[in-house]
């Protein structure tokens, strides 16, 4: 097999494309011939040694991928060679093959393209878990999506609209806002102009959003939280800006608001039955055309460094996908 190997997690520049032994699946595992993999922000952090999970070196990065089952280990009953699957395994995706627990693979229905499948699990599961489970979003409520042009942001727009909510998408540029409107957002804010709170007041007639979906963190968090509605729910999804904000907790008291953590990976581990039900609903929504991953670009797997550079420049709208030749 071939893969990008991280032997020293000091940054993207330390990755190298290498020939490695093709792994054999152990009990309860499958080996997948990877067809496509997508970039998520934690993939960048993990090769920089900055992520909360630090795999032993050397390792192959790449949390999310899709492909075809090549071999199964002892005890695997629900998958067989030839089955198309998507997986979120934490590592292993940026290469030609990966072994992973069979329980981490989602069988794909017919007609689900590998590029879409590689960009589906993490962002849509995170956004569904955040908005419908953690925030208990109701039809007619207003959702503010920060970083709305990114992978989880574009997924959050689609899921909130599917749930009957009004969506305000906030991004750093007018170009990104135009893409969000095309995805179904009802209104947009360019927060690079420094008028986030004022524009929120105008767009919500002074009431504020019922739910704030925040994968960005940094200096936007307090401004957004100050504008939240009474009984609002602030979803802590991630920190793409790089800074973990410190919020004055008196704001939660004054607004009767909830600060809600979102950790889909841990939810999937602790509540597998509910997670499986959620993934089934998302797959049905995809088939019905309610949700569809936004792909910024599809590049050859060998161009991973260029893909990371594009992600770091914050140019990406939706997800970057890397493709292995069939």
UniProtKB/TrEMBL annotation:
<dbReference type="InterPro" id="IPR036291">
    <property type="entry name" value="NAD(P)-bd_dom_sf"/>
</dbReference>
<protein>
    <submittedName>
        <fullName>NADPH2:quinone reductase</fullName>
    </submittedName>
</protein>
<feature type="domain" description="Enoyl reductase (ER)">
    <location>
        <begin position="11"/>
        <end position="322"/>
    </location>
</feature>
<dbReference type="InterPro" id="IPR020843">
    <property type="entry name" value="ER"/>
</dbReference>
<dbReference type="InterPro" id="IPR013149">
    <property type="entry name" value="ADH-like_C"/>
</dbReference>
<dbReference type="InterPro" id="IPR013154">
    <property type="entry name" value="ADH-like_N"/>
</dbReference>
<dbReference type="Pfam" id="PF08240">
    <property type="entry name" value="ADH_N"/>
</dbReference>
<dbReference type="Pfam" id="PF00107">
    <property type="entry name" value="ADH_zinc_N"/>
</dbReference>
<dbReference type="InterPro" id="IPR002364">
    <property type="entry name" value="Quin_OxRdtase/zeta-crystal_CS"/>
</dbReference>
<dbReference type="InterPro" id="IPR051397">
    <property type="entry name" value="Zn-ADH-like_protein"/>
</dbReference>
<dbReference type="GO" id="GO:0008270">
    <property type="term" value="F:zinc ion binding"/>
</dbReference>
<dbReference type="GO" id="GO:0016491">
    <property type="term" value="F:oxidoreductase activity"/>
</dbReference>
<dbReference type="InterPro" id="IPR011032">
    <property type="entry name" value="GroES-like_sf"/>
</dbReference>
């Amino acid at each position: 097999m071939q893969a990008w190997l991280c032997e020293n997690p000091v940054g993207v520049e330390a990755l190298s494309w290498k020939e490695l032994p093709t792994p054999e699946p152990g009990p309860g595992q499958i080996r997948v011939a990877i067809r496509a993999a997508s970039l998520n922000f934690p993939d960048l952090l993990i090769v920089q040694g900055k992520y909360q999970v630090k795999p032993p070196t050397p390792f192959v990065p790449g949390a999310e991928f899709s492909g075809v089952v090549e071999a199964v280990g002892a005890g695997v009953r629900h998958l067989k060679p030839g089955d198309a699957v998507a997986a979120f395994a934490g590592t292993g995706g940026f290469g030609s093959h990966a072994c992973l627990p069979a329980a981490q693979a989602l069988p794909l229905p017919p007609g689900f393209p590998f590029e879409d499948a590689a960009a589906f699990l993490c962002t849509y599961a995170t956004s569904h878990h955040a908005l419908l489970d953690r925030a208990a979003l109701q039809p007619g409520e207003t959702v503010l999506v920060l970083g709305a042009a990114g992978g989880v942001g574009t997924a959050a727009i689609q899921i909130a609209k599917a749930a009957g909510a009004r969506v305000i998408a906030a991004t750093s540029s007018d170009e990104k806002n135009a893409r969000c409107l095309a995805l179904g957002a009802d209104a947009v804010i360019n927060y690079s102009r420094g008028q986030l709170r004022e524009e929120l007041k105008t767009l919500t007639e002074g009431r504020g959003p019922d739910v704030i979906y925040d994968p960005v963190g940094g200096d936007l968090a307090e401004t957004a939280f100050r504008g939240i509605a009474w009984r609002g729910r602030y979803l802590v999804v991630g920190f793409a800006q790089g800074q973990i904000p410190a919020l004055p907790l008196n704001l939660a008291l004054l607004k009767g608001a909830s600060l809600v953590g979102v950790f889909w990976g841990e939810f999937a581990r602790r509540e597998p039955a509910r997670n499986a039900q959620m993934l089934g609903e998302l797959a049905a929504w995809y088939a019905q055309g309610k949700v569809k991953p936004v792909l910024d670009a599809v590049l050859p797997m060998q161009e991973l460094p260029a893909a990371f550079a594009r992600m770091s420049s914050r140019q990406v709208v939706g997800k970057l996908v890397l493709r292995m030749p069939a």
